[in-house]
Amino acid sequence: MELRKIGGTCEDDNCPTLYATDRGTVIVRGLVVSDAQALTQLGLPTGETAVEVPVELLASFHAGA
Question: Domain of life, per the record (predicted)?
Answer without folding.
Answer: Bacteria
